[in-house]
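Encode chain A's predicted structure.
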Amino acid sequence: MRDALLRAAHVDADTVLARAAREADELVAAAHAEAAAILERARRQGGAEGAAAAKARRTAARQAARELELAAESEAYADLRARVREAVRRAAADRTAQDRLRRRAHALLGPQAATAAAPEGGLTVVAPGRRVDLTPDTLSDRALERFGAEAEALWTP
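Encoded structure for chain A:
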């Protein structure tokens, strides 16, 4: 009887141990699966965050490049404007040019229009209800405005 009880106890113990080993293996396998899933989620999240950070950097770099480009274009336009203004000032100082400006003003406003030499050069012309500014800076600015977007061709490759 004692041997039968011992054998039964050993069988029960072996069964319990086998079940415990299986449960331990299942728990370990489940832990490995959970760890793999966590690692995969972390990789995806890291990839997404990295992609978003890279996109933000590319956007910032494009914006900085565009700002530099616009600053260079603005500087080129300001330089062009200054050169044109200076050239028109020199040309407007000529007596022949002043006579031509006066004739143009009278053609625009009529022979009764009053002309006056502007302190910065050129003329201002006034007729009742109308005024024409023929100063070098105004003439230069109008000429550049007529070029419009075509002026960009001067600094665009």
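Residues 72 and 155 are 9 Å apart (CA to CA).
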